[in-house]
Write a structure and sequence with these properties.
The chain has 82 residues and is an all-alpha fold. It has a domain of 51 residues. 73% of the residues lie in helices and 0% in strands. The chain has two helices and no strands.
């Protein structure tokens, strides 16, 4: 067996791989935040005032964004890019 020269695909720069990774994390993160916000709307919509629902959605989405940001940072840290 030949030793591994590089883990990146042939002809693809590391910069392009990182950009694709960021794009993938961004799209999946936005979809996740949308689902979090919508699930709060489905649980409390009609039970509380619109203002309270807005603030609950905002709080849940901010908490989820912070957790996703931590996950993204941890991935980059473990890969040695941070």
């Amino acid at each position: 067996m030949a030793p591994l020269q590089s883990l990146e695909p042939q002809g693809v720069s590391l910069h392009l791989c990182v950009m694709r990774e960021i794009l993938l994390f961004g799209i999946s993160g936005l979809a996740g935040l949308f689902i979090f916000g919508y699930s709060v709307h489905m649980f409390v919509g009609g039970l509380v005032s619109e203002r309270t629902e807005f603030w609950l959605i905002t709080i849940v989405v901010l908490i989820a964004a912070a957790i996703m940001g931590y996950f993204f940072w941890d991935i980059l840290r473990r890969q040695g890019r941070s």
